């Protein structure tokens, strides 16, 4: 009998031949490291808000072609060993050796390779692919493999919970263990009886929404305890659960609470002191909708909510009204998303072993309860040849190599719970995916939102999954199919035929997608033939993850299935400093579209100056769509994202991590349309986010304590007292004043502040440039009101406390070196006034410090010593290192970093195009993050808001 899950060595006549590994990227007798130029670099990462050093390691070794950003992320996140000790890894060679060595040794020991020579080729090919950034494993592999810690390789987990208190408490514990390790988990709570049903003791049940509170509090506690990233969790409830309306509106109600707390002066920013009192903020919520429910929505019919204990209908609701409540709640606070239950289970390879009820937090992994999935993503742009053709053969060979390695990892992997370990070893779920699709499409002249772009994406995805399952069938012939295959053989074969049939339905548009599609068809034919004979080694093979941190590790321009974020990028330089650079995909795109070199240079220069292509010299308007991005002057419309997801979904075992962003002015009807079309187009899961819909915002730079109002219980007993009326102290006709010009999020304005001759602010007038008469009048009235109150004795610190951190547009980067980021113009104005007119002690209590004071604080000095030397205002200085570096690079479209200092591409685009990205600040380094799948990733340090 051939060992499969354990991978034990086989003996006797049942011994099968191992895999023959072909050299594709390497040369016999030449180690892959020897074919690369290596260099030593110093990594020093700071938090720009306070100047503190987050991470420092000098003399690290990386290939010369790796960016400084990728170097910083790998050094700080993936190198193991205590800093400053000989045990600390300092070279990418050590990291890759640690991981690949474990994979090769395990594969050799468990019969994956035909000969030792094949094992060596596998070792060299994998090392070449990793150091050349052709692909990357997910973060847990880099964290754990080859270390003394548990060899956890999976980033995605699905749990289960039954209708017993023991099971609910186990759920809390299992989630906590997973969060502690920096991963995320999802769970469906639909087995828990509703709050409308009775307990066996005769009382009324609490219902799943109540138990969500405990799990949410646990996740928040573990998150704040310092794990590798915040706790990431998904909570799912079936649409026929009697508590579905309570579930749908749970987070929207909490958003109302946040608004009330904010208006009362509490700190409800993300990470704020008072946000912990708000519930359900640590999970993504999704409703599992059925085809029956969606048809009821379509026809305007009623829909029954059923008892969890008896199965009887407890209540009947208007399906269309319930659907509208889902859309309205998502419009208000981005939750819930939808998961399309029947579609998911129609593509399920192992239904005899259980239904698919939930997903991981980012919704790309959908499979059995108590299971996990390890991920790897291919850098698609690496397969675009110098002749701008897609290198199909090398892409196929790399996919085969990755699937082999990923399956090996399940053999040695550890898991957070025994139940998860048993299920994963029995079904061996894998999640190969890709990044840089958006960059590949642009470079080849394909608009993301076009039939041609969707055809290329569909063909590549089909080729990837067809090749992955073909290799899985070949592995089954060597080390046996997965344990659960025999029970699910018919269903698995049916799903493989569905994939192949979907491939046959792809409508090719151009030469590029036609060639890829031909290869995909051949891969599916061989997959079906080999699988019919051997079965398959893996119940699941592919999905599309957000690829946040590993996307930056591979120096990808775009993550996962996302389009390009912007046309200009912020680039760190190895020698220090920074510059902005036009995406290198743009010159290739222009060349492919038929433009001459002189035209290309002129267009690239225009983009570098303006950040968009509208009115670029010589660029034909019909080509504008090729350069549409996720954000900016020309952004991709919401249905463009949905239709791209629909194009690739039939060729994925799992689903797609992606949030469809819609503008702030989108309506509830827009949400209904998108969610309904997601079902019609065959998606498995969909989430929609409306800009600025959430109140909780990034961590503020302030650290002052908040004063709380007296509670009614603390109020003194009523008594009659004599109140002295305040007296207005008017300013003299001639008084000292100063005027400060400013820019916040691209909006320019002026502050004119007048003082009493004996010191003390007495008036302030605020003007915004290019505003309409109504706004001008409102600002004048606001200024007069503040000025009169100051003259009546209202302390300036009262206004600073009340108006700082107030958020509304325009907001974003400023041109003030002391206040790099403002939540609004009012937030900026009162921070500036505090810096100019309040003594250090009062400002420190309010958390308003100058740049010099923050630097002194970070260096362990007393900020009070430098407070007197801080100038009231200073123009930003140019970044000299960036200028010299930009001149020396010779890169087309490279420019010195803007004089107003920026730290990420998001901040650069905000400054250049004058809009504000609705994204949080990184809690590690303080820079603004950018969207990645259904969460956010920091371009500066690689931290994510919950994804792998």
Automatic annotation (TrEMBL):
It comes from the Bacteria. Pfam families: Ribonuc_red_2_N, Ribonuc_red_lgC, TSCPD. One of its GO terms (biological process) is DNA biosynthetic process. Residues 878-888 have a biased composition (Low complexity). Residues 43-133 form the Ribonucleotide reductase class II vitamin B12-dependent N-terminal domain. Residues 733-836 form the TSCPD domain. InterPro entries: RdRp_reductase_class-2, RNR_2_N, RNR_lg_C, RNR_NrdJ/NrdZ, TSCPD_dom. Its cofactor is adenosylcob(III)alamin. Signal peptide: none annotated. One of its GO terms (molecular function) is ribonucleoside-diphosphate reductase activity, thioredoxin disulfide as acceptor. Its EC number is 1.17.4.1. SUPFAM superfamilies: PFL-like glycyl radical enzymes (SSF51998). It catalyses: a 2'-deoxyribonucleoside 5'-diphosphate + [thioredoxin]-disulfide + H2O = a ribonucleoside 5'-diphosphate + [thioredoxin]-dithiol. Belongs to the ribonucleoside diphosphate reductase class-2 family. Catalyzes the reduction of ribonucleotides to deoxyribonucleotides. May function to provide a pool of deoxyribonucleotide precursors for DNA repair during oxygen limitation and/or for immediate growth after restoration of oxygen. This is Vitamin B12-dependent ribonucleotide reductase. It comes from Streptomonospora nanhaiensis.
